[in-house]
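Why run this: before we spend reagent on co-expression, it is cheaper to look at a predicted model of the complex and decide which construct boundaries make sense. The entries below are exactly what would go into the expression plan.
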Amino acid sequence: MTALPTVLGIETSCDETGVGIVRGSELLADALASSVDEHARFGGVVPEVASRAHLEAMVPTMHRALDAAGLTLDDIDAIAVTAGPGLAGALLVGVAAAKAYAVSVGKPLYGVNHLSAHVAVDRLVHGDLPQPCVALLVSGGHSSLLLVQDVAGELTSLGATVDDAAGEAFDKVARVLGLPFPGGPYIDKAAAEGDPSAIDFPRGVVRDAPYSFTFSGLKTAVARWVEARERAGEPVPIADVAASFQEAVADVLTARAVAACREHGVGTLVVGGGVAANSRLRALAEQRCDAAGLTLRTPPPKLCTDNGAMVAALGSLLVERGAEPSALDFAADSSMALT
Amino acid sequence: MLILAFDTSSPAVAVGVVGAEETLASSTAIAVNRHGEVLASAIDQVLRDADVRPADLTAIAVGLGPGPFTGLRVGIMTARAMSDALAIPAYGECSLDVIAAAHHASSGIAVLTDARRKQVYWARYDEDGKRRAGPELAPPAVVAEQLRGEVGELVGAGAVMYREVLADFVVDERQGYPEASYLASLVRTRLGVDGPADRLAPLYLRRPDAQVPGKPKAVTPS
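The model came back. Tokens follow.
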């Protein structure tokens, strides 16, 4: 083994098949295959379609990652894989692949948490994470605020969505506006031409849970507003609706993230997950962190969405500290808890 | 010659290491909805029992189903990854053929397995054990019509489960899940024969359940 371990990470928790390779905190390869186009006509990710696509994409994606890094499997010191949370059938394909590669080449295997990996990936870009810190993870499957004492160990959930994930709300509002799936990038684009203060959409609050989120009321409010216009025979100002909706989402996410940092006395906020690619969320997070004297760390969009590098980034931390590998019979866990 | 054979198309996980003459080690575990937990450690254990290192293997054999998708994919993904990692060929066989191979009958037989949703996966074999129909998916009553006069005996968990609908046939009451040794024997005949590598495509026989949505439903009461 060289001074720093070379770790391969496998990610299949949703519709992206990812294989990444890191050495220490250096990113060597990040290969990705996506089945997003196969889901588009259904308006959302179809689990069985995703699972079938992972099976077909896994070995070719593995080869692309190894080729990009100029390595063979023999050069890999350990394998990490997303064990959960995520779509059960999709997770299982990645876990089966990781176990099979690990058994074949006799390398240690680590089953890791997808949410922790979304936080850990930032070390590949900005170096070791100041801990404790707060992480805001927002995607099509998750909307969580986490207190990160130790990204490879102890993370505490401060709050999460009680209904739709933020990304789901983007998808559903996009449908109402006649925009394609996945909704995030299309709403972001439409919003660029709109007025974020045109419509005062509600900021949902969860009683007695200051760091939790609710987006179903917002989604319904947008649909009602659009229907009222349509019934009145008036044109729907798509740009204004998109901008005002996006503003409402970015507002609650960043306000609660900053408040969580303050309450817990931490100086760093990490924002990750697919929705972290949203331009308004990034801008507002930066503005509010600046105002509050917080350091904001946001990986580039390619590392915010699901990928194998984030799994490898977390795996390499586990290897570096000599953590015990997972037993070969560990289960994929669709609702995996944080620690 | 050392074949690692496994099948995850049934409620069981069957694993075996098979040499030129005999099965060196094998295991069968009932693992309903736990194929992903059981298979890799079963492979690891069976290789240890047989005193075989992964690098010593010369081929992989895997059951391609039909069977419940989630478990089925665990086996096929494992076969594809091990074949890739060890740079050895992998071969797939219809899992119903594996069940049929374990049953010798003077007349033809049919294999029926549980496909859930009141349907069975089935295939029909002649007296030489050659598959003559299937694998297909159908309600047991429809299969009974198709098999009338064609076979004497039915085997497999689907036959046991729907024996009342299949009262005109002799039903083998044994569980009849695919066994690794029979899977390996089917593959053994293909070793060394030049041909394109198997794509190891799962025999899904069913499309994913997914509806293309219509227009969003109105949320405003009219």
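The interface with chain B takes residues 41-43, 46, 48-49, 51-52, 55, 58-59, 62-63, 73, 88-89, 92-93, 95-97, 99-106, 172, 175-176, 220, 223-224, 227-228, 231, 327-332 of chain A (CB under 8 Å). The two ends of chain A are 29 Å apart (CA to CA). Bring this page to Monday's planning discussion.
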